[in-house]
Every structure is written in structure tokens, then in C-alpha cells.
Design brief:
Hypothetical protein af1432, single chain, 66% helix, 13 helices
Length: 337
């Protein structure tokens, strides 16, 4: 074989061919004609050419896929970037909305507080109008309010209920606005017909406070109607007894009696707190809910602080008569002497 063909064979027999040089020479033979060798070389050349084309096609496909992936990544990157920008804008808007919402809530709370203050001021003035002839009316309704809230808290009422009775209790006698002065201000015992007329203040008050959707006024109506009912059923106007009487009305019945006993009235001088407590204890389980009496007297030190804002309380602790009527409360006598 001519030397130039050996060079071609060496080139054709590279790692990309499937033939070794020895095998090529065995097929062509040492004395093969140049034409035969040329055919073999052309075959190998075409084979190599095809492989290169296939490789280029594969590379082209790979490049195409790579470009597609790059395009997809670019698109995703832009979408993520846009999403981040939109998210940042949304967060900014949400922060602004949050600031606006907090301000709105604050304004609503302030408006609600102003409305409640106006509402309770109106109620207070209504009560004062009903009892304007009594010079101690303002102090009386304040004490009733605080006594009632104290008892409500001590028996475990919810804070909402304590607040409700705080504002509802002063309206217990609003019906007196419909009672003639000659009866309200009479400086002595009422005759039977006069007393029957006085009883009507419970119904008048209930009618004044009727048909309200406000919880405070609903409680106030029940208190106005029932604060003269008795535990044993001998009260008025309905003659109901025990737990038929709303709890808030039973509380006001008790504290109103205490305040009436210890306050000056047209028909009497004020009793001392000790005498008032004696009277209340004597009416335990007859006029008053016994459990409420126990709680009230058990907290007499706080009751007297309300009665005497300056702190000049006559006594401290529960009433001693409790021990005589309820041996389980004997320990309370040590606090009230």
C-alpha cells in the first residue's frame, strides 16, 4: 500500500471508527488495489461524516433545549421578580390599611365611649329628675350603684354583668316621677291607700324603661319592677319569690334597703350602720336572699368605705348577728366589733 494511503488509514482509524488498523489492512489486503482502498476510505469518511453530523444534530438539539431552558429560567426569573414587586406593593398597601384600620378602631372606641358617657349621663339626669326633691339623690344613686357592683363582683358575676348592674341599678326608683309629692314627701307613716299608690312606682318605672333593646335598660326595667319583691313571696307588685326574682333585682333590693336605713328621709333620721345591719339580718330568708345578705355583711368594711368616702367607717368586717343566725360564719365576728 502506498505511504499516502497509510496516512489516510491512520486518520480513518481514529477512536471514532469501529475498526482497528490491523483489521482494516486484513480486509484490504497488502496488495489491494488503490481503488479498493479508496472505497474503504470513502466508506470510513462517510461514516465519520455521518457521526459528526449526528453529533452536531445532538448538539443542536442540546443547544436548542438549553436555550429553551434558559428562556424558561429567564421567564420564571421575571415572573418571580414581578411577583416580589407586587408582593412588596401589596405589603405596603396592607401596612397602610392596618394603620387606617387601627385609627378607625381607635375612633370607634372613642366614639363608643363618648356615646356611653352621654347615655349614662342622660340616665343619671333622668333618675335625678325623678327624685329631684331629695337633696341626697345624687349621692344616693352613686352609692346604690357602687354597692350593687360590689355585691355583684363578690358573688362572681362577670365583669360585663358587674358593669351592667353598676349603670342599671340607679334607675330602680325612676317610677317615683309619677307619684304625687304629698305621698313622696309625707313626714310620717303612709296610710294604706297612700301606700298602695306608692307601690305603683314599680310599675311606672317598668313602663318607662320598657321595650328597650339595650341590655342596661332591660336590667333596669327588671330592677324597677322587682326591687320590692321579697324572698318569701310577700313583696310587690307581683308577689314572686326566691329565684323567680331576678338576681340583679335581689341585689338592689338589699343595698337599697341598707342605704335607705342609713340615710335621712322626710319621715325619719338616719340609722347607724350597725342598726341597719341588725334590721337586714332580721329579714334574712324573709325579705332578702340569705346568700346575698351573707356576702353583703361579709364585706361590710368595703360597704362602709363606699358610704363614707373619707374613710370614717363606723365598723370593719361582717356583722356579728351572722354568727347567731349561721354558726358557719362565726369566724366573721372577729372582724366586726
Amino acid at each position: 500500500m502506498a505511504p499516502e494511503y497509510d496516512n489516510l488509514l491512520d486518520a480513518a482509524a481514529s477512536e471514532t471508527t469501529r475498526f482497528k488498523i490491523e483489521e482494516l489492512r486484513r480486509h484490504t489486503g497488502a496488495g489491494a488495489a488503490e481503488e479498493g482502498t479508496r472505497e474503504i476510505l470513502l466508506f470510513l469518511y462517510e461514516d465519520e461524516k455521518n457521526k459528526r453530523r449526528e453529533t452536531q444534530e445532538e448538539l443542536g438539539k442540546s443547544n436548542s433545549q438549553a436555550m429553551k431552558y434558559a428562556s424558561d429560567l429567564t421567564r420564571v426569573y421575571r415572573e418571580v421578580k414581578d411577583s416580589k414587586r407586587e408582593l412588596a406593593e401589596t405589603n405596603s398597601q396592607l401596612r397602610k390599611y392596618a394603620v387606617d384600620l387601627r385609627k378607625t378602631i381607635s375612633d370607634l372606641k372613642s366614639a363608643k365611649k363618648d356615646l356611653e358617657e352621654s347615655y349614662y349621663d342622660t340616665v343619671r339626669r333622668l333618675v335625678i329628675a325623678a327624685e329631684y326633691k331629695d337633696r341626697d339623690t345624687g349621692n344616693h344613686i352613686t352609692r346604690i350603684s357602687r354597692y350593687s357592683a360590689l355585691v355583684a363582683e363578690k358573688i362572681g358575676m362577670t365583669p360585663q354583668d358587674v358593669q351592667t348592674i353598676l349603670y342599671a341599678s340607679p334607675m330602680h326608683d325612676v317610677g317615683k316621677i309619677g307619684i304625687p309629692d304629698r305621698i313622696l314627701l309625707k313626714p310620717g307613716r303612709l296610710a294604706e291607700p297612700e301606700f298602695e299608690l306608692m307601690k305603683l312606682h314599680t310599675l311606672i318605672g317598668a313602663n318607662i324603661l320598657a321595650e328597650s333593646k339595650a341590655r342596661v335598660l332591660q336590667w333596669a326595667r327588671e330592677i324597677a319592677m322587682c326591687h320590692h319583691e321579697k324572698w318569701n313571696g310577700e313583696g310587690y307588685p307581683q308577689g314572686i319569690s326566691r329565684h323567680e326574682i331576678p338576681l340583679h333585682a335581689r341585689i338592689v333590693s338589699l343595698v337599697d334597703t341598707f342605704d335607705a336605713l342609713t340615710s335621712k328621709r322626710p319621715y325619719k333620721e338616719p340609722y347607724t350602720a350597725e342598726i341597719a345591719c341588725d334590721i337586714i339580718v332580721s329579714e334574712r330568708e324573709r325579705h332578702f336572699d340569705p346568700e346575698l345578705v351573707d356576702v353583703f355583711l361579709d364585706n361590710m368594711d368595703m360597704v362602709l368605705q363606699i358610704k363614707s368616702p373619707g374613710g370614717n367607717a363606723e365598723h370593719s368586717g361582717p356583722h356579728p348577728a351572722l354568727a347567731a343566725r349561721n354558726p358557719e360564719l362565726e369566724r366573721l365576728t372577729q372582724l366586726y366589733r
